[in-house]
Design a protein that fits this description.
alpha/beta; single chain; 6-stranded parallel beta sheet; 491 residues; binds adenosine-5'-diphosphate; Rossmann fold; 19 helices
Length: 491
């Protein structure tokens, strides 16, 4: 994809910023998007690159995966907190996407990527990453047209181009896009952090100021040329007080630059017909392998097959994910003939409640606490159903992955779940089971419908075939991003 600037034609260049990038580091869905979107953009002819940071283990993981990681012999210096902070600049590439990795063990010291606290030392690594992206073009002699920031962690960049005494000189050189993956996380910090970062000129109502604190995401919403959300429904929902998380008024006022673009998944990585992390591959034409994956998963939980449907849940165990309505439903659903398997980490009380339930119903609930990529693949492949009763869901990738593996989602009608799952109602045309009200009873009803369908071979074959056939690849969404980049670069 080429664009015409200053009377010459050149390739559109986009730098994505993300503190997490699959498969090098991952806390959630953002990591998947941070690699898959640039990769789809490259396939469409865009020069898309990524800048990220070397949390503990990242460089080793890249080498273990066989990525060639080269030290550029360059140091990236950023003035922050009244000192100059330096990191080593590494470069690697995969599927045509160049990835720049910043190494500074004193700065990027947490394996978990996101901080529990919001003390200055917890926040500076994120501001550093944002400013480092602005230093990169001069250092490597490659100038992007667009900086594409993701969530609060990289939101200091658009603010810096607007209000930083040094970087704002470069405002006219670049366009900025910020994608909101989850408005629940805004990066609300003490204004002193903003002062140390040189962003104090943006500390006002139309900038970063937020009830006396500094809100990094708010700064970005004000300063970016375009804002995207990860599904069309979510872009509407966050304009309402319920899901606006205190920013709905601001977002409504910026509605002209807000675009809902549905996430896709990396269909090369998530592919039951060639996934190396599952025991036997399968496809729509040759579905037998799914039965073997199912057997292996049962063994993993030391269970015999008793013919009951296996309902899995993989994800962060937080209230957003609807655990509060799911937990009370479990005993009843077990009595009705369901079996559950959980893989996740999160709030300790949810972990504890799940482990207690598993102790109480050892034959019908299996719980693995932790982050485990290989087990996640086995569970997507080996389960019959996937439950995701989210309170809110900006897009959700897990339901898309489960559909790709022919594992039928049971979801609440919200955000991206509403945009991607069609109810298998009376017309037998859908590929999931949806309920609307955030209530245990409604969840139970949807699960009972799914069990009924599971028990009818004809019904189950139909829904399996509809699900595994769907295309949630990045191609279509990447084209929407390209349109957006073109619009902002040429206006
Ligand atoms: P969110 O970004 O809100 O966490 P998404 O559904 O968008 O939710 O993406 C979650 C991603 O993280 C999926 O790829 C899912 O498979 C993965 N994931 C979440 N928890 C775990 C876990 N405990 N182990 C392995 N993968 C996980």
């Amino acid at each position: 994809m080429e664009i015409s600037t200053n009377n010459h034609i050149e390739k559109l260049k986009v730098l994505h910023l993300s503190p997490e990038v699959t498969p090098l580091s991952k806390a959630g869905g953002l990591a998947d998007v941070a690699f898959a979107l640039p990769s789809a953009l490259v396939d469409s002819g865009i020069d898309a690159r990524i800048i990220t940071c070397a949390h503990p283990g990242v460089l080793d993981r890249a080498r273990d995966l066989g990525w060639k990681v080269n030290y550029t012999r360059r140091k990236l210096n950023v003035a922050l907190d009244w000192r100059v902070i330096s990191s080593k600049l590494w470069k690697t590439s995969r599927e045509g996407v160049t990835v720049y990795i910043l190494e500074n063990p004193d700065l990027f010291k947490y394996e978990n990527i996101y901080p529990e606290n919001f003390e200055p030392d917890d926040i500076f690594p994120f501001i550093y990453l944002s400013f480092a992206a602005l230093e990169l073009p001069e250092l490597i002699k490659w100038t992007p047209h667009v900086f594409h920031c993701h969530d609060w962690g990289t939101s200091a960049l658009p603010s810096a181009l607007e209000w930083h005494p040094y970087y704002r000189r470069e405002r006219t050189m670049y366009k900025t896009v910020t994608t909101i993956h989850n408005l629940a996380h805004q990066g609300i910090v003490n204004p002193e952090i903003i002062r140390s970062a040189g962003l104090m000129e943006g500390f006002h109502i139309d900038g970063l100021e937020f009830y006396g604190s500094a809100n990094l995401l708010k700064g970005s919403i004000n300063a970016s040329d375009a804002i995207t959300t990860v599904s069309p429904s979510y872009s509407r929902e966050i304009q309402e007080p319920g899901q606006g998380m205190g920013l709905d008024g601001l977002i409504r006022s910026k509605r002209d630059k807000i675009h809902g673009i549905l996430n896709g998944i990396d269909t090369n990585y998530w592919d039951p017909s060639k996934d190396p992390l599952i025991p036997v591959n399968y496809s729509k034409k040759d579905p037998e392998g799914k039965t073997i994956c199912r057997k292996e998963m049962l063994e993993c939980f030391h269970w015999e097959d008793n013919g009951k449907p296996l309902i899995c849940n993989i994800g962060r165990l937080y209230s957003q994910k609807g655990i509060d309505i799911l937990l009370p439903a479990i005993p009843k659903l077990i009595r009705e003939g369901a079996r559950f398997v959980f893989l996740g980490t999160g709030d300790q009380h949810y972990e504890k409640n799940l482990l207690e339930l598993a102790e109480h119903f050892p034959d019908n609930i299996g719980v693995k606490i932790g982050f485990n990529e290989p087990l996640a693949h086995l569970m997507y492949a080996g389960s019959d159903l996937f439950i995701m009763p989210s309170l809110f869901e900006p897009c959700g990738l897990s339901q898309l992955i489960s559909l790709r593996y022919g594992t039928i989602p049971i979801v609440r009608k919200t955000g991206g779940l509403e945009d991607t799952v069609r109810d298998f109602g009376r017309d037998y045309e859908g590929w999931g089971f949806i309920f609307e009200k955030y209530a245990t009873e409604d969840l139970v009803h949807a699960v009972l419908r799914s069990i009924e369908c599971y028990r009818s071979p004809e019904c189950w074959r139909k829904i399996f075939e509809s699900s595994i056939n769907l295309d949630f690849s990045w191609k279509r969404s990447a084209n929407e991003y390209i349109k957006l980049y073109n619009n902002i670069v040429t206006t």
